[in-house]
Amino acid sequence: VQVVESGGGLVEPASSLRLSCAASGFTLDVFAIGWFRQAPGKEREGIGCINTTGATLYPDSVKGRFTNSKDYAKNAVVLKMKNLKPEDTAFYYCETDASDYESCTGNDNDYWGQGTQVPASW
What we know:
Elements: E1 2-6, E2 17-24, E3 33-38, E4 45-50, E5 56-57, E6 66-71, E7 76-81, E8 90-96, E9 111-112, E10 116-118
Antiparallel strand pairs: 1-2, 2-7, 3-4, 3-8, 4-5, 6-7, 8-9, 8-10
């Protein structure tokens, strides 16, 4: 089981960015995939979860701005972010616990990607 993030990059106020989480060793209809982020000096924050049925969950901090979807052709989850703010600056990670089809646990012993940086230009 492996997940690999891509798509990070420098952002400007109110801009948009798309991150991808490519899964290998399993298909998207088997396990839920979660997105987390961590800014320097801050706790890791869950920012989205998409389960095997495609149902999504977001915290208030990103609701209405971030959207999770599945690209079955690439076996990847896509996180679309819009109206980016300074507080969105962080390292972004995707993960799966490779056992739960419905929820995203974010435990340290889950399968995590290496992360992709979303730095701010302001």
